[in-house]
Amino acid sequence: MKFNMEKVSEKFMITEGKFDSELLKKVLPAIIKDKTKFVTSTGYSSAISKAKSLSIRLNKSIILVLDSDTNNANKTEEKKEEIEYIFKRLGKEHRVKIFLFQPEIEVIFLESKKLRSKFEDIFPLFSSKISLNAKKTGKRQLLDNLTQEEIESLRVETSLKVLIELCTKQ
Question: Residue 16's CB: how many other CB atoms inside 10 A?
């Protein structure tokens, strides 16, 4: 993918957790990462709270990256509109952009043809029976072993592509 460097401005990207930030740092193109300050939160509400605080204190663009926690597109859109309304009330809707992975950021591994089987080997059907510790270990293993070819696949085949486009428009 080619990007116009002039269109990528300095910004904050706020995520729900450490893994989300690490994943985005690994898979986003360098021209975006180099102009982005990643802010890690401790969950959904914490991320929104940090975005509100930063939007009030600083005159920088903010991209709030969250999990929708649903597979329902209508519910995802409703959630996005509710969050956008928070920033509209603050008069910061032009500074804060919302991006929701549906249902969660890890979905990009299933959206990518190159990574789907690798992901399903680590997480059979992303079963809730897998312990939290096993999920953390598996996600870490998957992230640490991504090849450049797999990263490119994530950038063009998955919902990550839409986030990249959002970053280059701001």
Answer: 24
Host H or E run for residue 38: strand 36-40
Distance from the Cα of residue 39 to its chain's centroid: 12
Global pTM reads 0.88
Domain that holds residue 69: 5-169
As a whole number of angstroms, the distance between CA 57 and CA 17 comes to 22
Q: What angle do CA 35, 37, 38 make, to 5 degrees?
A: 130
Q: Report the alpha-carbon distance of residue 63 to residue 59 in Å, rounded.
A: 13
Torsion of CA 52, 43, 63, 23, to 10 degrees: 160
Tokens of 55: 């939007």
What span, in angstroms and rounded, lies between the C-alpha atoms of 100 and 56? 22
> What are the tens digits of pLDDT across the range 78-105?
999 999 999 999 999 999 999 999 999 9
